[in-house]
Amino acid sequence: MTLDPENLRAAMRAWSAGVTIVTAVHEGVRHGMTVNSFTSISLDPALVTISLQKTARTHEFISSSRAFGLTMLSTEQAKISDLFAGRMEIEDRFAGLQTETLVTGSPLIVGGAAWLDCRVVDTFDAGMNTLFIAEVLAARGYDHALPLIYHNRKYWGLSEL
User: Residue 120 belongs to what H/E stretch?
Assistant: First the structure.
């Protein structure tokens, strides 16, 4: 019995996740995409994982550069999420955005709630995706920033219960 992908998509809409932009630079060209398949897997050593579809251009950049930056978006950055998700027709997704770099040279988007600069240490084939396991080389976050949340195809903010 094969699971209908639409049933899985409908079920996954019940899962809320923070929104991140994963970026990489290779041979002087920057690229990035919106990703919510991100997990911290170890504090010592500092490891995270992201999952990217093998056909994604960002996958190619990370595979080649063996590094990526991860910006955890703040509630004010929903339009940036849409931009990097490809919901807007634009040649250079970084045009007009302020970025900075930490260690690897991967661009990090200013205004985010937090940033991680990562070096890929291993990859695993996962069906149509690749799991990138990466060591976090540098991290920065702000206690006052509220994260952008994605739930049931809409953006949300947090409120304390």
Answer: strand 114-126
Kindly tell me if the per-residue pLDDT of 5 is higher than 90: no
pTM (predicted TM-score): 0.92
* CA–CA gap between residue 158 and residue 138 (Å, rounded): 26
69 close to 140: Cβ distance less than 8 angstroms: no
- What backbone torsions phi and psi does residue 149 show, to the nearest 5 degrees? -115, 145
Measured in degrees and rounded to the nearest 5, phi and psi for residue 61 equal -65, -45
Strands (E), 27-113: 29-35, 38-43, 46-53, 67-72, 99-100, 108-109
pLDDT surpasses 90 at 80: yes
CB 101 within 8 Å of CB 67: no
